[in-house]
Amino acid sequence: xxxxxxxxxxxxxxxxxxxxxxxxxxxxxxxxxxxxxxxxxxxxxxxxxxxxxxxxxxxxxxxxxxxxxxxxxxxxxxxxxxxxxxxxxxxxxxx
Length: 95
Description:
This protein has two helices and six strands. The chain is α+β, with helices and mostly antiparallel strands. The protein has a single domain, classed as Dimeric alpha+beta barrel (Alpha-Beta Plaits), CATH 3.30.70. The strands form two sheets. A four-stranded antiparallel beta sheet has the order 2-5-1-6, covered by helices on one side. A two-stranded antiparallel ribbon has the order 3-4. The longest helix is centred in the first third of the chain and has 13 residues.
């Protein structure tokens, strides 16, 4: 099995319906999920300085690390997520 990271983009104040959908989704991936987490804001550091990151539809709001056979299988699972704006799927590699 390969490992993949889902990066969740987009924030809006969750409704009870969104929270119910998220809870059901997390339960549905429990057998393949290795780790999950969320973010509470942050900063971008570049050669031109440091900038506080906004909390909006462009924000990375959370992540999951899952196991799947392939990128296609990971994408198929990500498509079942009740995402706000989008999800990016990356295959993880060992260093």
